[in-house]
Specification:
This protein has about 400 residues and is α/β, with parallel strands linked by helices. The chain has 13 helices and 18 strands.
Length: about 400
């Protein structure tokens, strides 16, 4: 009996500690975070939905770098493709090019210490960002730097959903082909990407490089109107709500994880109520446990209200995109889930250019053709295993 009481007390104390840790950690984070976005900028944008084509281009631009290569990824795996990437960075550093690699601490768990040491010995400046820190161990473990950003010579930027690992170039049998959207950006907004990278670098290392004009060359104005929005600490929810509120005819959402907040779900239902057509594109195959089951309770409500939900079947769908009325689209690093809304550091590109949006829609329309329409009948079929998973997913959906 004493053992049972002790276990109950331990569980209660653990819950109290987790709640206090998270709430106090969030309070501290809110006090230090600021909301920002660029004005409308002009640049030239290209989009890559295939990893092999993206990394062929990306690696070529790194090889051609003359001054510096700044890289931030959420995940780097331990596999031959990751080793190829590391070797490329080492080669550039050995040529005398400044190379900085910033990696999320938890996303980089599979990177070996020996690889980090080899990078440093070759001259690559390496740092982990968003480290788990005392006293708010639980909170800081949840707040990840989910940005995937690269800047080359201060003139070329990359931003999107791809990380570094074999699955991203279609070498994982379960998740191939990998479908994702990644932007290549040139023009004046690259300076903002550079600034955001250097902010994350300063937070991780204490080294402040933002006043060095070397990193901020004068850049041309391109033809594509867009703005960049970095978010953290609950800021993204408001941006997505305001985007949904602008819709008059159509909303198209592509995401690997559909776990909206209550406010965002209500806004989608309001849009359906005023006659907006809502289409949601998600994967048929999941890459993480419980993420699909966490989405089902939201999808049932939306399908019942008139939304169309498609499950991508030609591989794994990992893209992050929203298109409103064919007038504005959002492509970036943020998923349509609570983790991206409230926890992760993200950065998205909002694009206001009809020709580019039409190009993106042609990609999305093909992805919908490669998908299967989800039915309310299938979602509501009795399934004990799924019901158990849904209950478990609901309990922890905020952290999935």
């Amino acid at each position: 009996m004493n053992v049972v009481i002790a276990l109950i007390a331990l569980v209660l104390l653990s819950i109290i500690w987790l709640v206090l840790d998270f709430s106090l950690g969030l309070k501290k984070h809110l006090a230090s975070s600021t909301q920002k976005e660029t004005p409308i900028l002009h640049g030239d944008l290209d989009i890559f939905p295939h990893g092999k084509k993206l990394f062929t281009d990306y690696f070529a631009e790194i090889r051609a770098a003359k001054h510096h290569v700044h890289v931030l990824f959420y995940i780097i795996k331990n596999d031959p493709f990751s080793q190829e990437f590391f070797q490329l960075l080492k080669n550039k550093a050995q040529q005398g090019i400044e190379v900085r690699l910033l990696l999320d601490q938890l996303g980089g768990l599979k990177v070996k210490r020996a690889d980090i040491q080899a990078l440093k010995q070759a001259g690559v400046q390496f740092a982990y960002c968003n480290r788990i820190r005392f006293p708010f161990l639980f909170y800081t473990a949840q707040v990840r730097n989910h940005r995937k950003v690269s800047i080359i010579d201060g003139k070329i930027g990359y931003l999107g959903g791809f990380n570094i690992g074999k699955e991203y170039i279609d070498q994982d049998p379960k998740l191939s082909p990998w479908r994702d959207y990644h932007l290549k950006i040139t023009g004046e907004s690259v300076n903002f990407l550079q600034s955001e990278f250097l902010i994350d670098w300063r937070i991780a290392t204490g080294e402040n490089l933002q006043r060095d004009t070397f990193y901020f060359p004068k850049l041309h104005q391109g033809s594509v109107r867009h703005r960049l929005v970095p978010t953290e600490c609950g800021q993204l929810e408001g941006f997505q709500i305001r985007l949904i509120q602008k819709a008059k005819r159509t909303i198209l959402i592509g995401t690997p994880y559909f776990i909206p907040s209550k406010k965002v779900l209500n806004e989608l239902l309001t849009a359906l109520g005023r006659g907006v057509n809502l289409t949601i594109l998600t994967p048929y195959t999941a890459d993480h446990i419980l993420v699909q089951e966490a989405s089902y309770r939201f999808l049932r409500v939306l399908i019942s209200a008139g939304a169309q939900v498609y499950q991508y079947k030609k591989g794994f769908y990992h893209a992050k995109v929203i298109v409103i009325d064919d007038k504005v689209c959002d492509v970036g690093t943020a998923n349509f889930d609570n983790r991206s809304f409230f926890l992760n550091k993200e950065i998205n590109c909002y694009i206001y250019d009809r020709p580019f949006i039409e190009r993106l829609l042609s990609v999305l329309n093909q992805d919908i053709l490669d998908s299967e329409l989800m039915s309310l009948e299938n979602l509501n079929k009795p399934n004990v295993g799924r019901a158990v998973k849904e209950a478990a997913a609901q309990a922890i959906s905020f952290f999935l």
